[in-house]
Amino acid sequence: MSGRTPWPLLPFVAVVYLGLLAPLVVVIAVSFGPSAAFAFPPTGLTLRWFEAFFNSKPFVTSFFRVSLVVGLLAAVLATTLGTAAAIGLVRFRFTGREAFETFFLMPLLVPEILVGAALYLFYARLAIHASVLTLLWSHLIICTPYVIRSVTAGLVGMDPRLEEAAKSLGATPLQAFFKVTFPLLRSSLLSGAIFAFIISFSDINLALFLSGPESTSLPVHLFSQIQWEGDPTIAAASSLQIVIIGALILLVQRIFRLRLMV
Amino acid sequence: MRGSGQRMGPPQPSSAPSLTLPRFRGREGWGRRPLWAILVGPYALYLLVLLIVPFANVALFSVHAYSPTKVVLPELTFANYLKIFDPYYARLFGRTLRLGLVTTAICAVLGYPLAYFLARARPRVLALGLFLLIMPLMVSTVIRVFGWIVILGRKGMVNQALVAVGLEPVKLLYTETAVVIGLVNIFMPFMVLPLMASIERIPPSLEEAAQNLGASWPQMFLRTIMPLSLPGLISGCLLVYSVSISAFVTPALMGSPRERMVGQQIYDEVLVSFNWPSAASLAITLVLFTLLLLFAALRVTRRAGRLEIRQ
Question: How many distinct structural domains can be found in chain A?
Answer without folding.
Answer: 1
